[in-house]
Specification:
Keywords: 4Fe-4S, Iron, Iron-sulfur, Metal-binding. By secondary structure, the protein is of the alpha+beta class. It is built from 2 helices and 4 strands; from the N terminus they run βαββαβ.
């Protein structure tokens, strides 16, 4: 029996400044800066571009300088 870990990322889009550190730190390329939408501060914010690839490693949350990212993990 193989156990896999599925992750999901929640980004506080209001506080995100679009620094892109989370996207660079993501080993699976799950995160990206939203190409068309901006928040109230005028920044493109981070979002899960490919949600199915998230492994819940937490790298994005660790590198976020503003603490905008929460990572959830579930074993399947």
């Amino acid at each position: 029996m193989t156990t896999t870990v599925k992750g999901t990322v929640v980004v506080d889009q209001v506080r995100c400044k679009g620094c892109n550190l989370c996207a660079v730190a993501c080993p699976t390329g799950t995160l990206a800066m939203h190409p068309t939408e901006i928040n109230d501060k005028g920044y493109h914010f981070s979002y899960m571009a490919t949600p199915d690839t998230c492994i819940g490693c937490g790298n994005c949350g660790l590198v976020c300088p503003d603490g905008c990212i929460t990572v959830y993990r579930a074993k399947k």
